[in-house]
Every structure is written in structure tokens, then in C-alpha cells.
Amino acid sequence: MSETMTKDLSGATPVARSKQPVVDCDIHPAYRSPEELASYLPARWRQHVADFGIHSPSPLVGALPYPRLAHGMRQDSYPPVGGPPASDLPFLQEQLLDPLNITFGILQPLSAGHGALNHGLGEALCAGTNDWQVERWLDPEPRLRGSIAVMQEDPQAALREIEVRAKDKRFVQISITPRPAEPAGSRRYWPIFEAAEALNLPISMHSAAFGNRANTGSGWTSFYIEEHFAFSHAAQAALASMIFQGVFDQFPKLKLILVEGGFAWLPPTVWRMEREFDRYRGEVPDLKRRPAEYVRDHVWLTTQPVEEPPKSSQLSDLIDWIGIDRLLFSTDYPHWDFDHPDYAFRVPLTPEQRAKLMHDNAVGVFNLS
Fold it and tell me: What's the pLDDT tens digit per position in 271-330?
């Protein structure tokens, strides 16, 4: 790992400038203010939000009770011109894209439209989020790529939005929550998966505060530490549902990316699914393959937050179990637990393995060029 050293924008901490090209698969752009999103809504919905707000099953939307959602950002990521972290493109270019040698950055906007109980409003919020991505980020910065935010609880609305955005090849995935109103593999959502497969666009499920269900099986958490820990729960439940409900048999070319849920849980989860499959396969006789085979051919995971075992060699074991080609590097910029590509994987990797992890896997999954 060869790099030259520069100073960060505070003038203090050394920041490595890696020679390894990087695709960052989880960048969170922010609005300068709540009024910025409102400007991308039709007047009818702008007035609706002003008068009635956004009704959501999540107590977190608009509440900002957790450090991650309110103040849990890198302290050096606040733009000099003012505004929240990741709300100013020139500063994002200077702090993230340029020094980290990021050839492509995948935007992961967390749209309130995913969980809005008013489906018409949810559709408008998703469309506004997508318009905002184009105007504020994709048009002025060719290294960035967008995610199509859709109102998954209304599949027909989702299909309308996908049809519009798929014409713009800078949108490289379809973004939904792993915590929908029904289990993720339910047939209610199959029209979205069908469109994703037909367009060769991965389905991206980002664990976060938005969705129709809590991250735990028993309700909303009391503390931020619980919420952050439980991000992996939603990813596991979504994956199991999609496998056992036959999604990957119905859509054999579908690609699923599980974002910001960690990845160390995957091997024991697969082992457990394999055991249960041997015991209860008579309940799902239409499944054509074993759970491990579906995971191997259809599933990728972003790396942040990287689980850090007490012994670094154990992380190497995890990577070997999962497969280096299943992992997509992500920084999670500008959040406090940001991962720097030069420091996140301090384990023995060959140059070929590091290139796959940091760059090549994502180029293939997203068809980047």
C-alpha cells in the first residue's frame, strides 16, 4: 500500500493519498436545509408537508434523537461555507473524492419517502430525492453515481419512478429499505425485483432509520447503541426472506446489495439457513438450490461498518469464508464511523485482492464506466 501524505482540511491529521483506485459504495449526501428538499416537491406536496408533516411508522423521522442522525458526523466534515456535512459538493470533492482516489462514488440518499404512510407523498419524496441527486450531484460531478429511491410499498409507483430514472445511466441501483411493511421477499415487492433484473440494476437495501418496521423483532430501541448494533438484524431478515420465498429462483439474474449492515454475520447466518433447509426443505419444495448457493451468486455486502475481531487474523478468516469478491468497499462518509480505504483493512491482502475489494468488484456489480 503506497501513498503520499497530505494534511486534512483542519491542517492537523495526516491523510493518506492512496494509489489504489477506489469505488466508494456508500456516500450520504445531505440537504443544505429542509427547505432544499421541499424545493424539489410539487406545490401540492410542499404545502402538505408544511401543514401536516410526514407521517411515518418510524419515530426517528424528523426527531433526530440519535447521535448518528443529529451530531454523529466527522467533526471535520462540516463545510467551511456552512450547512450540514456532505451538503457542499466542492468540500466533498476536496475532503473525500480527491484525496482518497475515488474513481466512482455511489450516493445513498436516505429518503423519507421509503417509509411515508401516505403513498402519494412517499412517491413525491422519492421523485424529489432523485431530481435532487441529478441537479446537485450527478450533473456537476462525473465521478458520482445515483441510487433510484422508490416508494416500495406502492410497487406501481415504484415502477413509474424506475422507468423514468433508468433512462439515466448514472443511476446504478434501485434503493429500498430492508424493513418494508411485509417481509422483503413477499410477492408484493416482486414487480420491483422484476424491473431491477430486466434493467440489470442491483437492489440496494440500506440499513438505517427509515422503513416500516423497527430493526429489532420486539420494537424500537431505547438507545443509539442498540439501534446501531441492530442494523445487521434487518439485513439478515431481508436476506432470509428473499431466499426462502423464492425471489432468486423467480429472478435468477437479480443482484442484491446489503448496505451498512456489516458482514461478519453472513457466514453463521448461512450456516444456520443451511441447517434449517436440511430440516424443513419439505416446506419449501419449489426452491431449486441451497441457501448458500443463492448467497454466492446473488448477494454482495458493503464493508462499513467493518467488524473488528480481537485478532486481525480472524478478519482474514471472515473474508475467506465470505469471499473477497462478495465485498464492496464503502466509507459511509460523512458519518462518525467513516472508514478510510488505507486503514480499514489492515490484514494481509494481495494486490489483486485489495483491487477487488476497493474497486474491481463494484465496477462489475454496477457496470461502471
Answer: 999 999 999 999 999 999 999 999 999 999 999 988 888 888 888 999 999 999 999 999
Contacts (Cβ under 8 Å, ≥6 apart) of 351: none
- The answer to whether the CB of 355 falls within 8 A of the CB of 20 is yes
Gap between the Cα atoms of 128 and 72, Å rounded: 25
- What residue segments make up the domains of the chain, in order of their start? 23-366
Cell 442498540 found at: 226
Q: Which residue has the cell 501513498?
A: 3
8 A C-beta contact, residue 291 and residue 273: yes
The answer to whether the beta carbons of residues 45 and 37 sit under 8 Å apart is no
* Residue 216, burial from CB neighbour count under 10 angstroms (0-12, 13-18, 19+): middle
Parallel/antiparallel/unpaired status of strands 3-7 and 14-18 = antiparallel
Q: State the fold for domain 23-366.
A: TIM Barrel (3.20.20)
Pairing between strand 14-18 and 22-27? unpaired
Q: Which three cell numbers stand for residue 55?
A: 407521517
Q: Whole-prediction pTM value?
A: 0.92
Nearest-angstrom CA–CA distance, 86 and 32: 9
Beta bridge pairs of residue 138: none
Return mean pLDDT, the chain: 89
